[in-house]
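[recover] target loaded
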């Protein structure tokens, strides 16, 4: 299987670096091109805390200030995402791999699957946080959603759960779409 169009789902955690390296390596091998994606979502790494409307009811004087602060933090979050994408894009272009990027806001799993479809991706490369137990149960995982909903192959870069080692466990899974 030749991967000509590779969608790379990135975040600003340490696994993002690893995901990018693996995707770049694959693109070089297959002369493929990369589409780098960063999804801005409230659950994202470094995302500002969302002020809830219930807080505003109790402290009417704070509401506009809180919101302005939140807006500033959100703008910073957006800019850091763009900087990361630009940096990875430059590295890939230097390595001779055609690369573009996009940053979207919303549900990461859905956005990854929708973009993979509209971009015509042959492969999605993404990381897995390795949440365990109840966190996984309640939050689900983006990688799990993508594995079940993507219409192309998915390569998961797995950061080992034990923080003592820097070893990355690799796991490649192909999904077949049953539409």
């Amino acid at each position: 299987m030749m991967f000509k169009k590779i969608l790379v789902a990135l975040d600003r955690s340490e696994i993002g670096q690893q995901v990018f390296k693996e995707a770049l390596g694959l693109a070089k091998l297959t002369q493929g091109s990369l589409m780098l994606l960063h999804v801005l979502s409230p659950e994202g790494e470094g995302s500002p805390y969302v002020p809830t409307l219930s807080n505003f009811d109790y402290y009417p004087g704070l509401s506009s200030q809180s919101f302005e602060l939140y807006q500033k933090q959100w703008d910073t979050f957006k800019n850091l995402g763009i900087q990361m994408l630009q940096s990875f894009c430059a590295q890939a272009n230097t390595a001779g791999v055609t690369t573009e990027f996009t940053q979207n806001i919303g549900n990461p799993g859905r956005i990854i699957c929708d973009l993979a479809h509209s971009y015509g991706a042959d492969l999605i490369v993404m990381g897995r946080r390795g949440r365990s137990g109840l966190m996984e149960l309640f939050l689900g995982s983006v990688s799990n959603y993508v594995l079940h909903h993507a219409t192309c192959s998915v390569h998961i870069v797995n950061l080992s759960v034990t923080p003592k080692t820097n070893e990355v466990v690799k796991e490649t899974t192909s999904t077949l779409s049953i539409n």
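[recover] notes: Helices lie at 14-30, 53-58, 60-94, 108-119, 133-139, 142-149.
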